[in-house]
Amino acid sequence: MGQKQYMSLDFIQIIKERGFVHQFTDEAGLAALLKSGPQRAYIGFDCTAPSLHVGSLLQIMLLRWWQKCGHQPIVLLGGGTTKIGDPSGKDEARQLLNDADIQKNMDGLKDVFGKFLAFSNNESPTPSNAAIVANNADWLDNLNSVAFMRDYGRHFSVNRMLTMDSVRLRLEREQNLSLLEFMYMVYQAYDFVELKKRHDCRVQMGGSDQWGNIIMGTDLIRRAGLGEAYGITSPLITTSSGAKMGKTADGAIWLNEDKLSAYDYWQFWRNTEDADVVKFLKLFTELSLDEIAGYAKLSGGDINKAKIKLATEATALLHGSAKAEAAEKTAADTFSGSGVSENLPEVRIDALDVPLADVLVAAGFAASKSEARRLIKGNGVKVNDHAVADETAKLTKADLTADGFIKLSAGKKRHALLKVK
Fold it and tell me: By three-state DSSP, how is residue 377 classified?
């Protein structure tokens, strides 16, 4: 699996020190396994959307650290399990997707992993611990149900399955849980068996909501006579205000650039709450802990320096250093009042002499015309850095700058350049 960049044991030390760990199934056993040489670990990602969002970033960073420590990561795409739907944390069944939608989503997810992990097709020379992409449809789609239940079903206790949070919480709330969803944990456990057989994978990682599914997998490995296997779960990240990571008032923070620009991604991190900056620097950047400790000493307005560092480092990992630095410069130009940066997101409109409220909706700054009018009336909108309070105002040719655009701002954080098609 190749030359290690770190001592193998360092992986456990790194993820503990940086805040990635919620639980181990057997920390001592895993430590002993890593001492024996490079290993393979996997994390599963169902293909429910054409992009992952920031809520999945912690798992991606776990795989990245695993590879940086000389081990081989496996990205398991749920081409098969996406057809079922994981009931974990859900109040109702997931909408089922057809094969074409799943394949489209899978293609979008692969683009993200290429930004964080070294694969055999994007590194020269190819690292011997290059990341592997697997698709559980390769084995789940062709299972013989009777043979599968005969060989593996006997290893699952329904009594125990009923105690798993993904099942128990639904039943306690008297919400429907289909047999299809009930079987999800069985198929996920079987994924581990297949990855053990195909790739000698002995470690599964995932969010803390996957604990039940992961221990079902490690148990099945042992009961099937395939040796010992190990699990690691990471905490589900929320902001200090209790908000779910990756969700904002404006929608999900997507990782694919065609769904969210590098500038908007940078702004998301720049707007991190003060109390979360140090935690996020540890989780979502590769800055040394010593450097992060320096940022932890900042207070008052100086905390903004740490937020800018977080934004630029996190954006560089996903979009590259050039786009991260451009986003930082754009923000500096925009917020310092030194002028308008050409790197601001562009919004194309068909013509001028249109209501400002309509343009706010088109720019994504308001969900409806009524919301846009309220935003204007509340002094939340600026045109070329000048406040507009008239909710019936229109944009005309007189608003065009000498460079042929109009700068539109909503609040302090959202800006765009309007250009006529």
Answer: helix
